[in-house]
Amino acid sequence: MPVVQNNQEGVRLTDIIAPPFYEVYWDIKKGLHTHYDLYGGRGSTKSSFVSEQIVEGIMEDPNANAIVYRKTASTLETSVFEQIIWAIEALGVSSLWRTTKSPYKAIYKPTGQVILFRGLDKAKKQKSIKVAKGYLKFLWFEELDEFAGVEEIRSVQQSVLRGGSKFVVFKTFNPPISQSNWANQYVMMPKRDALRHKSCYTEINPAWLGEQFINEAEELKAVNERAYRHEYLGEPTGTGGEVFDNLEVREISDDEISVFDHIYMGIDWGWFPDPYHWAKMHYDAARKKLYIFGEYRAVKQSNSTTWAALKMLKGVTEYDLITADSAEPKSVGDYRSYGSNCRGAIKGPDSVRYGMKWLQSLKSIVIDPVRCPATAEEFTKYEYERTKEDEITSNFPDANNHSIDAVRYALERVWRKKGQ
Hints:
By secondary structure, the protein is an alpha/beta fold. It has helices spanning 22-29, 46-60, 77-90, 150-160, 182-188, 206-209, 211-223, 225-231, 254-258, 303-314, 329-337, 351-361, 373-381, 402-410, 412-415; strands spanning 3-4, 11-12, 35-40, 64-70, 97-101, 104-108, 113-119, 135-142, 168-173, 194-199, 247-249, 263-268, 276-284, 289-298, 321-324, 341-344, 364-367.
């Protein structure tokens, strides 16, 4: 880690950047990504790292400026504005910077480069933002989950990320408790030009956090481990309404898939607005692990079109057994007439409950979000029905569960076995 020079003596970056962020630091220096999504629990120092990177980056690049967003302007002063001031002082370059509060701004005095601070009341207002010198190279969304969603973030990025050759976009947040929150969903889904990084206080030098911080964390761990895992380890532990608490959403490697030998396929028929959904998976009975690594989803496509797509795009053959929703015998018959080894699910009384309980009993359900984005989203967002008083019931909602049904049909011949 290099030394940053100031007017007096060098400042070692290892004194202000925690070890978990060394890899991210060098990734930024090498220009390997545009988006850096940093999330974790309290005391993970992610905001400190970002503020240091922005100040250092502006001092290194005479054309670089930055803009920092919070959802509301009233939170700027006590959060990101103070955080940038901390970084300036930690780097020992206070004499080179000037800050103002009306408006909130940090100016690099040798060149006039700026760090701007904005509350995001309406994304469309951001179109008029200009800087006198260079361009807005650095963009930081602090407390990402407070914003309205991906569309709002995208609107700002489209307005800000222009006029330069290289951009660095930071998004930082503490994961909300519910996995279905849009920010948790966002970092779960792969993005080609993004580096996702999770950190927590256990990786940080205790001296940086202080004895009181450590004591409070350990006390919460002793009395409420679930709250501790959420607040301090940055885990979306759930609200208690999630149907599946055994999910493992990650990429499944080609090497793993090459040895899968117990393959199952299922279909939930649909047209519009409900989609057609085909699912492909492997079940490891010895370890009670399910791997979902294939999907095809479509709307307003005929049975002949979806069957052709399965053969051409997914490599399905006439020998592959597909278990489909028997509520549409015509669709099952169509597939069989095309040469598919398709059969209708048996169903029967309580079949939904039995199938769902079996899926919940598995040690883990591994879903590849790259190959199966719709499946990953549905499984992670699926929650029990609630009463008007917002109390959780034991009922499974019959909505937004097309991939879940396809998986349940596919594995029917497994969970219907005696003892399962």
